[in-house]
Amino acid sequence: MSDPAGDSSVQHQFDPVWPQRFRPFLFALGTIPVWLAVTVLAWGAGDDHSTSMIDSLFIAAVVILPAAHMFHMAGFQRIGLHPGIRHCHDDTHGPGIEIPYQRLLYAHAAFWLSFVTAIVAIGIRSADERRGMNGPSDSHPPDGSFWMWTTLAVVLAGALPFLLRPRGGLYLYTDGIQRRTSWLYRRAVSDVFVRWEDIEQIVPDVYTVTSRGAEIHHPLIRFRVPGFSVTRPRVPHDQPGAFTVMAYVLVSEPNALVGLLDRLHRCPDGRHIVTTPEAPELLRPLPVRERLRIARKIPRQQWEW
């Protein structure tokens, strides 16, 4: 039997469908919150006690969140093989690969909410001090309870999108592909299984969102399946005759995923590669540096993400 990790190099010989570009402006913006976090921590560790250490830790933690989002948007995403991609076994379909949904997508909204909340909290506390609620005779630094309650409120608000977000994943077997989706707030479960032989065509696509004149392309993979009908509960982007995998919500790198899917579809004799414990290595993406280098050679009019 051939080595799955070695076979996976075949999918990297082609240009990516969705180039992953480096965006210097967003990277530069991401360094600003990092600098602020370091500055706040330095204040907390100083001898003047102008800011308590616990306040500094809370402020730095909240301020650093937008930096993570900026670095993600700048091109540093899907770094290495995600630990959630693992070997699995189904009683009906046998061994295969499990690719779960990622849990960070809607967390970006919580990141920005945390940032705005921190700014508002700083303003409220400064106003309280100007009104004399913390008198100049008080030599003790704040105990951090204000930031603890503020952070708790942000965490609870940020957890709400996680409760609304669908759960499940994509499963690759020798006899077909399965997409399973559930929701915490309702009992309905969408479970679609399609045999490889029933798939007429695999079509890469994008879900385009326009924001302030800029277009953001989210990778989609459409499976043309004659006779496929959309059933309830409906998963977004499904159509009669085609079911859709939202590649941008999976933990796998989209180009590595579509390359593996295309290979499994075209080469029936090679589908056994998903049955081994080392099969998740098939979805290990190229290093970020290599992906960014390849994207520089691809025309700008192609899809980006």
Q: How would you describe this protein?
A:
The protein has 305 residues and is of the alpha+beta class. The protein has 2 domains: 1-18 and 83-102 and 166-305; 23-74 and 106-164. Helices cover 37% and strands 21% of the residues. It has 7 helices and 8 strands; from the N terminus they run H-H-H-E-E-H-H-E-E-E-E-E-E-H-H. The protein has helices spanning 4-7, 24-45, 53-73, 107-130, 145-164, 254-266, 288-296; strands at residues 86-90, 94-100, 167-173, 176-183, 186-195, 201-211, 214-224, 242-245. It has a 5-stranded antiparallel β-sheet, with no helix packed on it. A 3-stranded antiparallel β-sheet has the order 6-7-8. Strand 6 (201-211) and strand 7 (214-224) form a beta hairpin. Helix 2 runs antiparallel to helix 3, helix 3 runs antiparallel to helix 4 and helix 4 (107-130) runs antiparallel to helix 5. The longest helix is centred in the middle third of the chain and has 24 residues, at 107-130. 27% of the residues are buried.
Outline:
This protein is α+β, with helices and mostly antiparallel strands.
